[in-house]
Design brief:
This protein is of the alpha/beta class. It contains twelve helices and seven strands. β4 and β5 form a beta hairpin. The chain has a five-stranded parallel sheet with strand order 1-2-3-7-6, with helices on both faces. A two-stranded antiparallel ribbon has the order 4-5. It folds into two domains: 321 residues, 3-Layer(aba) Sandwich (Rossmann fold), CATH 3.40.50.970; 33 residues.
Length: 361
């Protein structure tokens, strides 16, 4: 597959068309109807949670949030191969992967409400916290991959970055060392066409982003990230290479951020309605639903019912997060070290003094 879809040929890997018809039977992943249906339901939950989170933010009940709307199939495909011991090293736009790893929505809400506890995933083994400094997490992923190889563990690392992140030095250092050391890391670029307002066409002169792997000597592929089956097939093949051969892989998943960059952004300032409409037709949920409906596995009534259940579940977890209690200032300072270093203690005392002063104003 990696040969046939060599990124130097600039050939996009896809399996299903925009109506949900399988057009590339040869590369259909091994997946049962039950698994496909469950994956669709999980993607539905992630989308529902995502849209509701944006509306909570608009009501002033959450600080900020980076929407995943339109990018669900990337997480959906990776979730098919994730094992309990595998690692996820995220950026900040992979809600479906965090949930698949066992993070709760309540924890996600807490994080975006400013609680440090939102990064302490109780049941999500080997899930690192959100990383906002673009591409810095990729180096951590390579480092974890090195440790896995050193101790001969049966684990794979999945790490995520945006199209903009591929211009960071960290991206190139991480790929280079992953390839030199031959470590089991799957790098996933979510190419959603924009780094905030900056279109990917202005980001690089390369023919695509996957091709950036060539100089570093690792396999890569450009895949339709709005095609759940193509994503699943790529996830299966990439994880096999990583797990069995200790080969790192670069995956460029083409998608579109239907929402804003974050809740403080207004995409109407930098993209056209025509472009949005063009991508609307390639929406990952619509395609997957088309596939399931054609096989008589799903209908609108079932969707409506499940949507109502999911709404209630999101509300329940949001309520728990909202009633979490007061936010202890010490948490911010205590979070990173077993014992707080003096320099941090000083900062904490200074901040406590400031808060006292503010109270007295
Ligand atoms: C090192 C660094 N530089 C700048 C920023 C500010 N910043 C936040 S998001 C962003 C754009 C990232 O775009 P992309 O990598 O395409 O990911 P996306 O947000 O589209 O998922 C920038 C420049 C940052 N967070 N970190």
């Amino acid at each position: 597959m990696f040969k046939e879809y060599d990124p130097l040929k600039n050939k996009l890997f896809s399996v299903m068309d925009k109506d949900g018809t399988i057009t590339n039977e040869k590369w259909m992943p091994e997946i049962s109807d039950e698994q496909s249906l469950q994956a669709y339901k999980d993607m539905m939950f992630a989308r529902k949670a995502d849209l509701m989170t944006v509306s909570y933010q608009r009501q002033g009940r959450i600080y900020t949030y980076p929407p995943n709307y339109g990018q669900e199939a990337i997480a959906g495909g990776i979730a098919q191969v994730l094992r309990d011991d595998d690692w996820v090293v995220p950026a900040y736009r992979e809600l479906g992967v965090w949930l698949a790893k066992g993070a709760t929505l309540k924890e996600v809400f807490l994080y975006f409400m400013g609680y440090e506890d939102g990064s302490k995933f109780e049941n999500a083994k080997h899930l690192l916290p959100v990383s906002v400094p673009i591409a810095s997490q990729l180096l951590h992923a390579t480092g974890i991959g090195y440790e896995i190889k050193y101790h001969k563990k049966d684990e794979v690392v999945y790490t995520f970055v945006g199209d903009g992140g591929t211009s960071e030095g960290d991206f190139h250092e991480a790929l280079n060392f992953a390839s030199v050391w031959k470590v089991p890391v799957v790098f996933i670029i979510q190419n959603n066409q924009y780094a905030i307002s900056f279109n990917v066409k202005n980001q690089t002169s390369s023919q695509n982003l996957a091709v950036k792997s060539v100089a570093y000597g690792l396999k890569s592929i450009q895949v339709d990230g709005n095609d759940f089956f193509a994503m699943t097939k790529v996830a299966q093949e990439a994880s096999k290479l990583a797990r069995e051969k200790q080969e790192p892989v670069l995956v460029e998943a083409l998608t579109y951020r239907k929402g804003a960059h974050t809740t403080s952004d207004d995409p109407s300032k930098y993209r056209t309605k025509e472009e949005e409409q063009e991508w609307e037709e390639k929406d990952p949920m619509k395609r997957m639903k088309g596939y399931l409906q054609a096989k008589d596995l799903w209908d609108d009534k079932q969707e409506e019912e499940l949507d109502g259940q999911y709404k209630k579940e999101v509300e329940r977890q949001f309520e728990e997060a909202e009633n979490y209690g007061e936010y202890p200032l010490e948490d911010v300072f205590q979070y990173h070290y077993a014992e707080m270093p003096d320099v941090l203690k000083k900062q904490m005392y200074a901040h406590q003094k400031y808060l006292k002063w503010k109270e007295g104003q």
